[in-house]
Write a structure and sequence with these properties.
Number of helices: 16
Largest sheet: 2 strands, antiparallel
Order of helices and strands: HHHHHHHHEEEHHHHEHHHH
Strand order of the largest sheet: 1-4
Helix content: over 70%
Shape: globular
Structural class: mainly alpha
Distance between the termini: 42 Å
Length: about 375
Amino acid sequence: MNSVNDERMKAPLILEGTAAGPHATEPDTRNAIRSQRHLGHVALQSAPLALGLLALLLAPVFLSDFRLSLLAKFLTYAIVALAIDLVWGYAGMLSLGHGVFFGLGGYAFAMYLKQEASRGALPDFMSWSGLTELPVFWAPFANAWFAIPMTMIIPAAVAGLVGYMVFNSRITGVYFSIITQALALIVSILFIGQQPYTGGTNGITNFQTIFGRALILDDVRLTLYYVTVAVLVLSFLLSRWLISSRFGWLLVALRDDENRVRFIGYNPAHIKTAILMFSAALSGVAGALFATQVGIISPALIGVVPSIEMVVWVAVGGRGTLVGPIVGAILVSAAKSSLSEGSPDYWSYYFGALFIGSVLVFPQGIVGGARQLSSFVRRRRPGYRRV
């Protein structure tokens, strides 16, 4: 009798702690349910991303050369939108001057492309402006391996200088937005006024080759398209890793309560400056790709209006989502292109109505609204249990 009782006492001990057993404890059951939901959530997020990437990779098969060129331009916009989302969506700083960083990266690489097109001669716009020799600061950009890192270093350095002055003065909120907007206006006016060095209003254009290959060749255009896709994917993965790290948690904490972050021993000025510099570097790379894809970079891409339009992409797509800004940049740019083609006289009104309507219907953006709808449907399913 005693031996039977002993065996009965041991049985629960053997099965205890195993979620698969009939005597699984309640915490183990909860953990199993949470794990299943997490895997389902990851799969739900990964599937659209995989389909989107597949669509981008197969786009050259289905699109004409003109449409593929447009898509490549929209992808450079997507990189900028992703960069703005890091600053605005996660750190809570609305920047209205990212066109500056986009333009600086574009000008840095355009200086290389223009010198390669000039083949050792003075660039045409400099001759028209009365210069007789190449400016000293232009000379190093004749080397592509100097120009490429400068597309990131120059915007990051400008962002670091602005961040140091602004954040150490504890300027936040709308005042930061006004300062960045003023920066966009100042830089665009400066570039227009320095025509002998920047091309003035017309900017820098008439690029012919890159790394010795003609830009008009089909294989070169296709390679540039896939390079743009690769840079966008790499930027997304790098941003996702950053947001998932301890630094990303600090960004969200700064957005929600900056004083609390300061009280626990962190310097918000350093964190804000770091993310602004990283965002500016991404924008600079996008500008360099844009100049190569489109064949021009001008002050019109640096000013206040393009900077605000970049923010619109993030707002429509959904800030604080990483995927949303990419979707917003592509969809808004495609809608703008289609409306301008179909209704050249009224497209701006249609575009404005489209933006207002999307914000009213999806205040969290397209991706944010889709996530809320998915969560609502999932919670309404029979058998759903909160754990």
